[in-house]
Amino acid sequence: MGAFQENFLWGGAVAANQCEGAWDEDGKGISTADCITAGAVDKEREYTRGVVEGRYYPSHDAIDFYHRYQEDIALFAEMGFKCFRTSINWTRIYPHGDETEPNEKGLQFYDDLFDECLRYGIEPVVTISHYETPYYLVEKIGSWRSREMIEHYLDFCRTIFKRYRNKVKYWMTFNEINVIILKPEIAAGLRLEEGENWDQMIYQSAHHMLVASAKAVKLGHEINPEFQIGMMMLYPTFYGETCHPLDQLKCMQAIDMHYLFSDVQVRGAYSRKAEKFFEQKGIRLQTEEGDWAALKKGTVDYIGFSYYNSNVASREMKKDMTAGNMLHTVKNPYLKTSDWGWTVDAVGLRLALNYLYDRYQIPLFVVENGLGAVDTVEKDGSIHDSYRISYLREHIEQMELAVEEDGVELMGYTPWGCIDLVSAGTGEMKKRYGFVYVDRDNEGNGTLQRSKKDSFEWYKKVIASNGACLD
């Protein structure tokens, strides 16, 4: 079809805390991700205070990417990846988060990882902070409640920007930054303390993250003007349940909660609507004089976003609800759902691309999209995941339409979990996204052997044809 630009960034995405393992090796400190138990083993996932003996924490071993990255990057190269999105585990570099000197062994690991990518012509796309915060700083200063976190984060950024200035071009400051309003313990290591006001705590912490992001963008551009530094958000396409005006109002209000974050990072200021929201909620941000200038100077170069499913907003409280990437909304009778109840809605991705591009007019990057499913290994070792191929095909077709018919400027596409990894939402291995199967179960058993699924060869053809061959 020729919809995508010649240098379109085809690839795949993972997160350090969901694939690396080696949680306490080579000087790495404890992160918040290391304190989250597995929902498949414990009836409910729990964010524990520290690491409790006898509990199972899936991030501790994950899929052992830390020791197997060469094998995995070779598989990505075989598929023809142009880029690979991963993250840098903060506590590999600063074990407590406030040291004056970084951990050299941690820095060397990412040197080796990026070198391996570049050897195959694969551009690293790096999320600076992806759902992990130094646990020491959670206990010491309350994580992002404290302005001190801004400087600790900037120290981390300064170190990795300088170290990898000639190896990494594409960066994102925080993964799904807006998830702080949905799952603050995952996104920012935050738990509501007794007597604390939820809204005040969440949006004050978010303000600190937004200022930190803006200052990081400015810092990165000073270190290397060629850096492309983006934001990253969970994009929740919303539909009103009916054409009733109040359903449409609910729909607008639902998405506005998320645009608050992209407005600040792209436009450099809170919108008047956000200010009114703070006023109505009694939220009084504690700010410093330099915050507003920092936000204005640190606007991002592009918008990275995740899209898995769409959602329905209703003026009425409903009992019949469905799940979907941190959100629980009214069921959509027109759409099928995944094994985990997430709606499958490729057109919703086209809408997301249009809504974001019309609003901001800067390049977009679909950095997460995929189908979590139960895969079956046949007796001969093959894995026939036609359902995953169908999902991805439909979404790529809608991306093509957004580019070719709607004029959206799209940089690239990195489907989530290009290799099976630990689910952030449930802690399961059973919920698989990858083109590559990893022999590991929900209890941490298995050989960790890597196997190609049918989708592996399919995606290889997609990349080779620059999206023209989707059969």
TrEMBL record:
Coiled-coil blocks: none
EC numbers, comma separated: 3.2.1.86
Enzyme class, spelled out: hydrolase
Family, as annotated: Belongs to the glycosyl hydrolase 1 family.
Keywords: Glycosidase, Hydrolase
Name of this chain's protein: 6-phospho-beta-glucosidase
UniProt-listed PANTHER family: 6-PHOSPHO-BETA-GLUCOSIDASE ASCB-RELATED, GLYCOSYL HYDROLASE
One Pfam family cited in the UniProt record for this chain: Glyco_hydro_1
GO molecular function per UniProt: 6-phospho-beta-glucosidase activity
Annotated InterPro entries: GH (IPR017853), GH_1_N_CS (IPR033132), Glyco_hydro_1 (IPR001360), Glyco_hydro_1_AS (IPR018120)
Record-annotated active site: E368
Record carries keyword Hydrolase: yes
TM regions (residue ranges): none
Keyword flag Hydrolase: yes
